Every structure is written in structure tokens, then in C-alpha cells.
Amino acid sequence: xxxxxxxxxxxxxxxxxxxxxxxxxxxxxxxxxxxxxxxxxxxxxxxxxxxxxxxxxxxxxxxxxxxxxxxxxxxxxxxxxxxxxxxxxxxxxxxxxxxxxxxxxxxxxxxxxxxxxxxxxxxxxxxxxxxxxxxxxxxxxxxxxxxxxxxxxxxxxx
Length: 158
Prior knowledge:
This protein is mainly alpha-helical. Helix content is 84%, strand content 0%.
């Protein structure tokens, strides 16, 4: 029986999955950090949501481009290299999760003035619930951008 999916295929799927998670989580972290700074400084909640969403999309696209360029430079991907990349990406993903935790515990939200701005932000969201629906589109825009970037990258190499 001929195997259609090899170890290389599974490792490439793992690499792709972790790259997507890393890009999304890092973009989310940076967007959230910017949002927290804007809340701390009592910037308009609407501007906050707009900046957070645009930052997440832009950072995500930049990270995907960087990773695709890095992978494109590799001339030969052996099983050992693929395993090494997979392990490194898993470790990097875990580090991002730790960064989220540390930021939640000791970040800007631990300052007293943050909660005053947060209350204004929450009241705005309560009065404008449609904003949350619109801001949730950020995730879908990132996935669509990821698809376009992959299609663009693979069509260039054909």
C-alpha cells in the first residue's frame, strides 16, 4: 500500500498550524497591549477598538510575510529540519502564552488608573453592542489575509 501522507506532510501541517497560532496570538497580544495603553490614557473607546483591530491585522500580515519568506529561503527541508522547526515553534508558542499570563498579572492593567479608563470603555461597549460584533471581524480578516498570502506565495513559485 502506498502512503499518501508521509511524516514530512504531518510535520508541515504542524508547522503551518503553529505558525498560524503564533501569528494570531502575537498579533492579539500586541493589539491588546496597545488597547490597554489607550484605555490607561482615556482615549476614546471607538478609537481604541479601531486601533486594536487595525494593529492586529497589520501585525498578523507582517508576521505571516516574515515566516513565509523565512520558509521560502530554505532550499531543502529534511525530516530533521522539519522536526526542529516544529519543536521550536511549539516552544515559541508556549513562550507567547507565558507572555500573555505575565502581562495579565503584571502589565499595565495592574495600575490603579487603568480601571477608571476601563470603566469608560465598558460603558461604551454596553451602549454600543454592535461594536463588539464588528470588532470580531478582525479574526476573520486575518484568516482571509492568511489565505490570500498563501495563495499569492504558491502562485509565484509555480
